[in-house]
Fold ABC transporter.
Amino acid sequence: MGVIQVDGLWKTYGDITAVNQMNFAVERGELYGFLGPNGAGKTSTIRMLTGQLQPDAGTVRVLETDPTATPLETRRRVGILPEQQSPPSFLTPREYLEFVGDVRDLDSEWIAEQTAVWADRLGFESKLDTLHTDLSRGQQQKVMITQAFIHEPDVVFIDEPLANLDPLVQEQVKRYLVSYAAGDNAVFVSTHNIDVAEEICSRVGIVADGRIVTERSLQSDSGERRDESLLELFLERVEGAGVRDAPSLGRIGDRER
Ligand SMILES: Nc1ncnc2c1ncn2[C@@H]1O[C@H](COP(=O)(O)OP(=O)(O)OP(=O)(O)O)[C@@H](O)[C@H]1O
């Protein structure tokens, strides 16, 4: 069984089927990219994997916990960087990371040390005692990345990890994600950035209309990365699934062929 195991997952909102018989598994050591057009069901899936949303059917296991039955246990053991979320405006990064450490029962000295390590790594030392409301979007994203990793979880879920980051920090974060997964952890990244997925992911699942339409390993057996374009595969599979929200993809794909 994978550290993330999804079988027959199903979620509807009224008449809309957001997740439709989704199946996949992620193993330790993988940096798994979850790719799909707008409305494909990625956020709904992540929310069910992290105990924030109840499925209508199917089973989900994360580190052998059941996030639908014991969401707090799952959330204690994983890191989560949700889509477009900011740290609380009325706290500073130091206060917020202390709070995160408290919630996770971590030693306060250790959290203080880790806060310094992460502030140095991502370059927000000078902002540690500034209210989040006075930080830029990118500086807030650095704090959100820190809270997802600070307790060294075995599994991390990240929605658009590089949003708002400058190119230098993007490179650092990409390298960190690769090395973190390689350290016998699993990193699950939802992104629209196909180039980044192709660069850092060891495997991707392409989602369309609420299900995985294809999976691809991005490393050959010899460990070399493959030559075929992930963008081409994405366009072909998403169009093949007849996705409602992607009417212009054919034109983009035709131009590139
Ligand atoms: N709370 C909700 N109520 C009703 N419909 C919803 C709700 N949340 C999502 N949906 C619908 O479910 C479908 C899947 O949405 P979801 O947010 O999971 O997609 P996504 O792949 O994360 O999209 P994006 O890439 O645009 O963030 C969409 O059609 C969306 O409109």
Remarks:
- Residues 167-182 form the longest helix (16 residues).
- The longest strand covers residues 16-26.
- The two ends are 39 Å apart (CA to CA).
